[in-house]
């Protein structure tokens, strides 16, 4: 195995390490998002506004389901990163094995549960009878593919814990290309409708998971598991769940708030649903930089916390904050001046009402991007140090803020009023995160954490 495959983030320039790790992470996040974005583009261009509304409006629900698995496996990987940073490789492999058990169990339970509750959940989100069959069929297929989703999430999380953020990117690039081809074949050639998008997504995810598994087996002997690694340990399960569950809950609590907003948007009709969907997809593309910084700082902090180098943790957080502020300014400029034209990816320029909805959303929320970026920084820093409760509490603050705004304005004011739910949530999430981070760093100076 090449010595450069594993990236020890406990030595070297924090800023350089973070940037080098973040760039592949960002590209990987873009390609992972590419699945649903391509689904929306193909559906909007070839099947029309109703199909775009059907697929695009599932983003919040998919974030709830897939975000849980992503948060869970990311939490598990923190123990792997800390063990790697401490050079305790036997313990690291044991945590990997226990994570596999837990990931499979959660994916199976969720597949069964969500498949049964599929229509009930969609009814609660105010979907009309006209659009219900398409949404129900699309999500049903996504649920059946959760096992391959968690497989990729877990395997890529293990690689990132060891400092390898590039390999998952390469696999996603291949599977993203497969997704594009299958979307066109299933929808344009075969004429399968929106369900074709779901099948393309699941198949593409399966390919990325398989490639990731083969790569680990061949190139990472340090992750090669033995029979003894799989000996069940309730204590290890407890430690993993102690980090994984709060991270998963944080993702899902945030997603619940987004689902509440989506339910409010659905009241305003298909044009608002389609415009909000297109705006959300574009915003998420730009926000992948924030997500990548968050995932990077979690690995960086996890390794340095395991090595006992807390001063490096502080240095890494500081330089990452500056980079997040800089990217926020770029995002604000891009969305303000070019957001309208970027929506043409999803819908014809002749659909002026849909495009105006997207522009209204951009001009309402873009001023608050620095707050959004900071959430990923401080939430993942605390998680990387092993603190799961406060990041979850930040998610609860988000949920409360979104719920209050939606309750006050949905159906009573214009669409722009509902848009304010996102900025309110971003600010609220920082209320517990920022003070606790500074409390922990101050405490570190006087006691051994």
From TrEMBL:
GO molecular function, one term: antiporter activity
Residues annotated as signal peptide: none
Keywords from the UniProt entry: Cell membrane, Membrane, Transmembrane, Transmembrane helix, Transport
Membrane topology, record value: Multi-pass membrane protein
Keyword Membrane: yes
Subcellular location: Cell membrane
Pfam family for this entry, one: MatE
Transmembrane segments: 61-84, 96-117, 137-162, 169-192, 198-217, 240-265, 285-302, 322-342, 354-377, 389-411, 423-440
Single GO cellular component term: plasma membrane
Domain of life: Bacteria
Predominant location category: membrane
Protein name: Multi antimicrobial extrusion protein
Biological source species: Anaerobutyricum hallii
């Amino acid at each position: 195995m090449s010595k450069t495959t594993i990236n020890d983030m406990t030595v070297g320039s924090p800023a350089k390490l973070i940037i080098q790790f973040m760039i592949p992470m960002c590209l990987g996040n873009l390609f992972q998002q590419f699945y649903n974005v391509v689904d929306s583009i193909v559906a909007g261009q070839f099947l029309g506004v109703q199909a775009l509304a059907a697929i695009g409006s599932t983003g919040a629900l998919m974030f709830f389901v897939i975000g849980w698995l992503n948060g869970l496996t990311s939490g598990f990987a923190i123990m792997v990163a800390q063990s790697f940073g401490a050079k305790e490789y036997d313990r690291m492999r044991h945590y990997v094995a226990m994570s596999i058990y837990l990931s499979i169990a959660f994916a199976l339970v969720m597949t069964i549960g969500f498949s049964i509750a599929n229509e009930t959940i969609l009814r609660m989100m105010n979907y009309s009878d006209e659009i219900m069959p398409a949404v129900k069929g699309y999500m049903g297929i996504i649920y059946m593919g959760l096992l391959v989703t968690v497989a990729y999430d877990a395997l890529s999380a293990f690689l990132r814990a060891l400092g390898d953020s590039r390999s998952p990117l390469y696999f996603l690039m291949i599977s993203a290309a497969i997704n594009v081809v299958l979307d066109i074949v299933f929808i344009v050639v075969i004429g399968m409708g929106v369900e074709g998008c779901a099948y393309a997504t699941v198949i593409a995810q399966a390919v990325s998971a398989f490639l990731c598994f083969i790569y680990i087996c061949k190139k990472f002997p340090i992750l090669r598991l033995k029979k003894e690694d799989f000996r069940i340990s309730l204590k290890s399960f407890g430690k993993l769940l102690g980090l994984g569950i709060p991270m998963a809950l944080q993702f899902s609590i945030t997603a619940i708030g987004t689902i509440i907003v989506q339910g409010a948007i659905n009241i305003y009709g298909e044009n608002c649903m389609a415009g909000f969907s297109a705006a959300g997809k574009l915003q998420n593309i730009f926000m992948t930089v924030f997500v990548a910084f968050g995932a990077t700082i979690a690995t960086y902090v996890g390794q340095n916390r395991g090595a006992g180098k807390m001063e490096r943790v502080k240095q890494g957080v500081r330089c990452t904050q500056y980079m997040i502020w800089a990217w926020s300014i770029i995002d604000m400029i891009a969305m303000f001046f070019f957001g309208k034209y970027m929506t043409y990816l999803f819908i014809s320029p002749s659909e002026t009402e849909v495009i105006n909805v997207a522009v209204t959303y951009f001009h309402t929320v873009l001023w608050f991007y620095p707050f959004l970026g900071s959430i990923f920084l401080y939430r993942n820093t605390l998680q990387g140090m092993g603190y799961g409760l406060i990041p979850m509490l930040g998610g609860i603050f988000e949920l409360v803020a979104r719920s209050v705004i939606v309750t006050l304005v949905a159906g009573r004011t214009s669409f722009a009023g509902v848009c304010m739910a996102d900025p309110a949530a971003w600010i609220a999430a920082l209320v517990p995160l920022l003070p606790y981070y500074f409390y922990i760093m101050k405490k570190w100076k006087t006691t051994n954490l």
